[in-house]
Amino acid sequence: MFIFEPFENFKYRQMKNTITLLFLILLTTFPNLHAQDSQHSIARQWNEIVLDAIRGDFARPTVHARNLFHTSVAMYDAWAAYDSIADTYFLGKTLHGYACPFNSVPTPVDVKAAQEEAISFAVFRLIQHRFKDSPAAELILAETNAFMEELGYNTTNTIADYACGAAELGNYIARHIIEYGLEDGSNEQGAYENLYYEPVNPSLLLELSGNLTIEDLNRWQPLRFANFIDQGGNPLGETTPAFLSPEWGIVKPFSLQEEDLTIHQRDGNDYWVYHDPGPPAYWDDMGSAASDEYKWNHTLVSVWSSHLDPADEVLWDISPASIGNMTVEDYPTTIEGLRDFYDLTEGGDKSKGHAVNPRTGLPYEPQIVRRADYARVLAEFWADGPDSETPPGHWFTIVNYVNDHPDLVKKIRGQGEIVDDLEWDVKIYFALGGAMHDVAITAWGIKGWYDYIRPISAIRGMAELGQSSDPTKPSYHPGGLPLIPGFVEVIEEGDPLQGFVGQYIGEIKVYAWKGPNFIENPDTDVAGVSWIRARNWFPYQRPSFVTPPFAGYVSGHSTYSRAAAEVLTAFTGDPFFPGGMGEFHCPKNDFLVFEDGPSESLTLQWATYRDASDQCSLSRIWGGIHPPVDDMPGRLIGIEIGVDAFNFAESYFVKEEAPPIVSEYYTYPNPTTCALQIDYPFEATATIEVYDLNGRLLLSFEGDFSKKRPALDLRDLTSGVYLVVGWDSEENKLFEEKVVRM
Description:
Layout: H1 16-29, H2 42-56, H3 61-80, E1 94-95, E2 98-99, H4 111-130, H5 137-151, H6 166-181, E3 204-205, E4 223-229, E5 235-239, E6 261-266, E7 269-274, H7 289-304, E8 315-317, H8 338-341, E9 368-370, H9 371-381, H10 390-404, H11 421-450, H12 455-465, E10 488-490, E11 508-513, E12 529-533, H13 556-572, E13 582-586, E14 602-606, H14 609-622, H15 628-650, E15 666-668, E16 675-679, E17 685-691, E18 697-704, E19 711-713, E20 720-727, E21 733-741
Parallel strand pairs: 3-4
Antiparallel strand pairs: 1-2, 4-5, 6-7, 8-9, 10-11, 11-12, 13-14, 15-16, 16-19, 17-18, 17-20, 20-21
Helix pairs in contact: 1-5, 2-3, 2-4, 2-5, 2-10, 3-4, 3-6, 3-10, 3-11, 4-5, 4-6, 7-12, 9-14, 10-11, 10-13, 11-13, 11-15, 13-14, 13-15, 14-15
């Protein structure tokens, strides 16, 4: 059995600081810690180091999707620069207005060695730059330095002239990606802080019952913590975390196209939204049909939290025989259609399961477990915290698991010749990194614009109003929680929840997970499920985290996961995991973090990559983070992004026949003291750019050759030698020439 093992024992994540100190000592004493990975390609080894760096950094899914993308681009281009067939993505291209000049590299004696050296220097420089301010910077920088020393590379070599060799090419790639990143819309130079977004709701004080402060039940509400610990396990003390990346839609994408984009405005500020799904279900106090859908969606999250008690004897078969095998036709495309897809009271979805494992021809063996253990493990496994590589990084770990599987045949699209490990890794990272980057831009652009509420705010906020089902019962309000017998009811006289003097009579109660206040020792205790005041409802999360600090709609987990599943399906040419099943083992009482469990050992199993993605989506509902209305649009958008990103990445795998550089042009005078005249015999427009010999773009000029002899003003340049390059509208190079400015 080939099992996907976690990066570390989840039960002991609280030992982070001790482990960090010990690892620093080990790096100093034993610099060859990566020797065990020697059977892996250099790209794989650097990807693992990037994931390590992300685990030690602040939990920022958008930022780390970008880091994974940029390091994947660096690896791909460092490899492609020495490959005779593949085209580069960044080198020699103008990307969103940023030019990275590149001709070619000298042919090395050992091509693979040159590729490995260029990859190493490029990723090393990027990590050193991007993670220098990380809370684990000392560990991260020590790990990268130790690995470079192990590889025998001289890190003091900072020369960026790619004609000199592979190390210099790596430095050149990293330098240009770093410079590009400072103008890609991410506000890296401003520590990724928001420029104009402001929340409309006052903070929810988690120490208090209820949600009296909320002003708009449709908009995101910040949470105030006495001791906040982010998903990376970093303690940030008493704080109200700001909305992460609400303006991320403006970041320059990979494969997203202008026709996918809608630009909205609020308060005079632009919000860029790709693949706009339209609004979610909105609440009102009139009892409208739309508001009923809002109430159903958020109440379902509370109902599903009643499934989280290991004393519950409900048993499920969680094998691929019963779970998975849904197609896009099974997904609802309207808000009203969500009711038929998700089971309100029993949990789960319309999975059909798989009759047989297509790789073995045998039926999948049933795995009968408690529904409570399954739901709790799902919520924890897919949560990616604390000490996590975040959702986009999680899919890189799954890709690495797939890449290690003995049954995997490394044929791209499942066709053609088997490729070596290095080619396979740089190409799959490139495609996956591009998809994860586009998901971050898309999902967080949607989050920033729609600014949608999270379940903890919605459930507690509606509970403050009362119940919306029966005007003859106490606490009726058309905007309150809907009554569901056995799950949502009114506290009546004699109820154990009525309070010492009956002060809670008439309030709403829910049958749900009791919350972290019922856990003293997470190694031995479980909170369990019971009737609680709805004003005290809590998602299945630790009290130091509760809910991610950004809006819910759409689910990032759903979008990331489905896009990744589409990339893996297309890249491998097979929707199924190698051997017909992927697995992750969760040992009894040694997996869950903030309460004990699971009560019995179980193994998460997925027949296909899409099955894993669908499972991830459901985990966010059991975890109390998303209602169905956040989930389903994320899945559908993820399909589009994943397919587009793979196709776009694949277009670089084979170099197009470049048109020859046209020689019928004339530049004069050369040398020149002030201006350069350019003659070109064809009617055409072109972009003429001037670079210094270090590759920095200094001037750009739109020339119209149909009017002949455009002149380029060089008076602002100091004396020296410059490279003048002409590009047509398709970014084909028309000419280039060295020009002397006297």
